[in-house]
Amino acid sequence: MSRKVVIEADGGSRGNPGPAGYGAVVRDAGTGEVLAERAEGIGVATNNVAEYRGLVAGLRAAADLGADIVDVRMDSKLVVEQMSGRWKIKHAALQPLALEAQKIARGFGRIRYEWIPREQNKHADRLANQAMDAQAGIVPGKAGRAEPQPVRWTGAKGTPTRFLLLRHGQTALSVQRRYSGRGEVPLTDAGERQAKAAALRLSTIDGIGPATPIMSSALGRAVQTAQAVAEAVGGHVVTHTGLLETDFGRWEGLSFAEAAERDPELHRRWVADSSVPAPDGESFDAVHHRVRRVRDELIAAHGGTTIVIVSHVTPIKSILRMGLDAGPSLLFRLHLDLASLSVVEFYPDGNASVRLVNDTSHLNRQVPF
Question: To bridge 283 with a disulfide, which of 19, 277, 306, 321 should be the other Cys (CB 3.0-4.6 Å)?
């Protein structure tokens, strides 16, 4: 049975360019019920960029809901005409956003774009303005007053959510440098020692304690590593399937050379294009999108605190990529060792700060066993 939804999206910029944000609402086409809301401050940008970002967020939300018939309603004539194919997309900053929106839209059975007056787009407009307010550090104060939050030297406002990103310890497949995705492979003895060393390191970090959320991929090698952390800090592990490693499909257990020999053309495309999935597996774009959803969920639930995430190479690189606001090429240019620690902070105003990448200094220390 088909599912029809309506997307209302908007974006704004206080300065054009200036501090910008977007809002998007997904409604059931029959009842008008709100099925999803999305809003985010995006730093300094133009109105058109913010409007496109709102469209992309709404399309992603609709895709997550399993929609196949989509009506998009926006008060941006430019976005509606460009996405309908009637106007050319000349501005360089809009072209990649339009391509991203088109890529998501191709996953629906039918999509239609409609211009509406601004007064009919109030819900999305309100979300966009709330996102810009939050980005500016403005929160409702007593008696309804708006109160600014402290400004840090980086320009970021508000209390960040700190992610401590720990890659799992050594396994037999990692020693052999083979694709290790969804298969269950335990830590080696060396991997267990690495996990305990990393756990000891984490237990010394300020703000870590029994109440610290410890989120882990549901795969055993990550859970083993996360459990070592929980034992060291007195906490407990919660698994999340969104933190699983890439599904390498038929390449599972193969080396890079073996996969390239088995499927030469597909392997070349896979390395060059993050939207190409492994055979019977998953693309890096798909991993990035699901990890982004996990990050957003965790910030919504534990914003302003420290969170430990124990996962794998691709999900950790994806979170670092978000912190750096980098493209998919980072996946191939950044190396992460086994049991390495990386740290990134996400601020409520949309800023981020990568504090540490691929630190393995704890593996050189003597750890009691």
Answer: 277
Domain holding 20: CATH number? 3.30.420.10
pTM (predicted TM-score)? 0.60
- Domain containing residue 137: 4-148
Q: Which of 8, 40, 245, 345 is catalytic?
A: 245
231 labelled catalytic: no
SS3 of the chain: the string is: CCCEEEEEEEEEECCCCEEEEEEEEEEECCCCCEEEEEEEEEEEECHHHHHHHHHHHHHHHHHHCCCCEEEEEECCHHHHHHHCCCCCCCCCCCHHHHHHHHHHHCCCCEEEEEECCHHHHHHHHHHHHHHHHHHCCEEECHHHCEEECCECCCCCECCCEEEEEEECCCEHHHHCCECCCCCCCCECHHHHHHHHHHHHHHHCCCCCCCCCCEEECCCHHHHHHHHHHHHHHCCCEEECHHHCCCCCHHHCCCEHHHHHHHCHHHHHHHHHCCCCCCCCCCCHHHHHHHHHHHHHHHHHHHCCCEEEEEECHHHHHHHHHHHHCCCCCHHHHCCCCCCCEEEEEECCCCCEEEEEEEECHHHHCCCCC
Select which of 8, 40, 51, 168 is catalytic: 168
CATH number for position 320: 3.40.50.1240
Is 245 considered catalytic here? Answer: yes
Co-location of 287 and 347 in the same domain: yes
Per-residue pLDDT tens digits of the chain, which is 369 residues long: 678 999 999 999 887 777 889 999 999 999 999 999 999 988 888 899 999 999 999 999 999 999 999 999 999 999 999 999 999 998 888 999 999 999 999 999 999 999 999 889 999 999 998 888 877 766 544 333 344 444 444 555 678 899 999 999 999 999 999 999 999 999 999 999 999 999 999 998 888 889 999 999 999 999 999 999 999 998 999 999 999 999 999 999 999 999 999 999 999 999 888 889 999 999 999 999 999 999 999 998 888 899 999 999 999 999 999 999 888 888 888 999 999 999 999 988 788 999 999 999 888 764 544
